[in-house]
Amino acid sequence: MHDTQRPSPPLILSLAVVMGLLMLVIDVLVLVSSFSVFLAIRDHRRRGGLPYPPGPRPLPLIGNLFDIPKEFSWLTYSRHSRIHGKNHSVASLLLTEGMAGDIISFHIFGQVIVVMNSIKATKDLLERRGEIYSDRPTCTIHEMCVVQIFTFSYGTRQSAG
After folding, report:
1. Domain-located, residue 155
2. Structural contact between residues 122 and 142, judged by C-beta atoms closer than 8 angstroms
3. Residue 156 included in any domain
4. Cβ-proximal residues to 81 (8 Å cutoff; 6+ apart), any chain
C-alpha cells in the first residue's frame, strides 16, 4: 500500500502566515500607490497643469528637506540656480522669459517653496505681476470668530416672579 503524503500541520500553518504577510504587503503597496496618485492628481489640478520652476529632484514624502540650507543660504541657492536653473519646457519659457536660472523651487512635505535669485526676477514677478502671485488663503478660523462675535446675541433675561 502506498502512503499518501499530506503536508504536516506546521507547514500548512507557515504557508498561511506567509500568504497573510504577502496579502498585507500588497494591501500596503496598493494603499501607498493610491495615495500617491491622489496627491499627484490634486497637485496637477491645483497648479492648472503648469510646471513648477526647476529645482533639485525631490525625494518621496520629504521632498527637498535636505537641500534647504541652514547657513549661507544665498550660496546654496545660487549653486542650485546654476545647476537646475535651465528648464526647457515651452510653458516655463513663456512664463519666465529672460529669467532662466533666477527662479528655482523646492518641495518640502507637499509644500512648494519658490526662491528668486535676482532682483530683476523679484521685481518682475512681485511688482509688475504681483496681483497674480500675491494671493493668500482665507483664514477660516478668523472668519468663524468674527462671524460669531458679531452675530452672537444674548437671550432676554427673565426676571423671577
Report:
1. no
2. no
3. no
4. 101, 102, 104, 115, 117
